[in-house]
Amino acid sequence: xxxxxxxxxxxxxxxxxxxxxxxxxxxxxxxxxxxxxxxxxxxxxxxxxxxxxxxxxxxxxxxxxxxxxxxxxxxxxxxxxxxxxxxxxxxxxxxxxxxxxxxxxxxxxxxxxxxxxxxxxxxxxxxxxxxxxxxxxxxxxxxxxxxxxxxxxxxxxxxxxxxxxxxxxxxxxxxxxxxxxxxxxxxxxxxxxxxxxxxxxxxxxxxxxxxxxxxxxxxxxxxxxxxxxxxxxxxxxxxxxxxxxxxxxxxxxxxxxxxxxxxxxxxxxxxxxxxxxxxxxxxxxxxxxxxxxxxxxxxxxxxxxxxxxxxxxxxxxxxxxxxxxxxxxxxxxxxxxxxxxxxxxxxxxxxxxxxxxxxxxxxxxxxxxxxxxxxxxxxxxxxxxxxxxxxxxxxxxxxxxxxxxxxxxxxxxxxxxxxxxxxxxxxxxxxxxxxxxxxxxxxxxxxxxxxxxxxxxxxxxxxxxxxxxxxxxxxxxxxxxxxxxxxxxxxxxxxx
Length: 496
Description:
This protein has helices at 2-31, 42-45, 52-66, 89-95, 122-128, 136-142, 153-163, 181-193, 202-213, 223-231, 235-258, 265-278, 341-358, 367-384, 390-407, 476-483; strands at 70-74, 103-107, 112-117, 146-149, 167-169, 219-221, 283-284, 289-292, 313-318, 320-322, 325-326, 329-334, 416-417, 436-439, 442-445, 450-453, 456-461, 464-467. It is an alpha+beta fold. Helix 11 (235-258) packs across helix 12, helix 13 (341-358) packs antiparallel against helix 14 and helix 14 packs antiparallel against helix 15. It starts with a helix and ends in a 13-residue tail after the last helix.
């Protein structure tokens, strides 16, 4: 018996010692910094949107513009919580780097760029996986000539101050997706002028730092230079915009298939959101504008809380934020899958007028010349269309007259540019190849709270334009055919 007790005690001691040893190994492993891989997998730590040479070419064009000066950009900080990180548009445009609190100096005199990153953080690497950190490996992966520790930036700034170098930096607030520069600028101005807030923008604070630490340097706005560069898209950018349009169009089409009376507007947005995320989008490019019935009269209605009624039409304006580029598309479809006679007449004449504008787009001419040609076609549409409803005829006539008034204006415009933002930067007197934009004219019967608009994203080419969203059904019969693909009983939704 005593022998058994001794043997049992010995086994217990061995087990405890083994357990203590295992715990010690775990603790030591957790406390010990993760070993850096000798060669990082570039795909794991750098963007797959464009190769490094695309970003290098953009920086080279900035160097041409700034001459002997330096351009300094700051990346966005980390998000305040468990939120995915998204770099601001301008920093990503020039570097492709998706790390918080990065700084970039583009030196026009030296013809080289220096990227400043936070020092290596083994704890963050254990949490998030491999990260870029200062050193030669980061330079190899990004194609940026030097990648230094962020603390060294102040030393570089002091050198620029001694040399009295001109500094270019961004004056406008950063854009992080689901916004355009006009939105962030308006928000910053409102916040600064709010007597109960008054905070400066990050950019304004950075400008003040530059003036304080480099008072000898002239500081100029980099925004106009980047606006001009971003305005005309490269072939690689157009390829990404084409894919963004495909994802956006597929989302709208899925919402069409699922639409039926009794659903809530937000359920259609959810159908598109699923498609966006399934195809790798970061999220929406803007809030979903899903309007049914009389909500269509509000151009930016986005509450999404109304139920679709039998006999409503739905106007859906939406698009994804896909690899830092967006698309913008609007389609109108009947909630029950069939256009009523009134809806078909209103929709068809509007569609023909809309197509008159889109079919008149050509390169190297100002918007007013496109509109002049479109008005000729619109007059032909009005003359040949068979109207049965006087109000529809009146609405169509008023639509054409608004365009006729623009045809003689120096400020005539077709729509808005798109790219990294849904109302993108840049502009030119004439339409030029590589410009990407949309048109979205509305036709309405105000007294009856009836309104409609369509929208497509298109790129100007040497021969006219390529309609990036043109594959999404737009003819009434094609819309009805698509919606008939999956007509299931109405799902019950829960109102928010």
